[in-house]
Write a structure and sequence with these properties.
Layout: H1 22-38, H2 54-57, H3 61-86
Helix pairs in contact: 1-3
Length: about 100
């Protein structure tokens, strides 16, 4: 009798089955981008506030990390866009640094 490979115990870390809904991820990215546009630092990620930590909310660490990462990715994307826009003049040519 052959054993089903799916019934064998897996080695390695458990697979993260919890997913962050797309709409929630997009909203957190938007909020991170808005924070960057306001000039907020990455250290101001609201997911690092005590009231949003898994020990306070009861959510899994995996979901919390995904929320934190979504906000961070929005912040980083906006920061990069801001950096690029500051190196060009309105007509699209590079600014003279001298």
């Amino acid at each position: 009798m052959k054993s089903d490979p799916g019934s064998q115990p897996r080695s390695g870390p458990p697979v993260e089955r919890e997913a962050l809904p797309c709409a929630e991820r997009a909203e957190l990215q938007r909020q991170g981008a808005k924070a960057a546009a306001r000039g907020d630092e990455t250290s101001e990620n609201p997911m690092t506030q005590a009231s949003n930590l898994p020990t306070s909310t009861g959510e899994s660490r995996g979901i919390w990390q995904k929320r934190k990462d979504a906000w961070q990715s929005g912040h980083e994307a906006q920061s990069k866009a801001d950096d690029k826009s500051q190196t060009f003049t309105p007509n699209g040519s590079a600014k003279d640094e001298h």
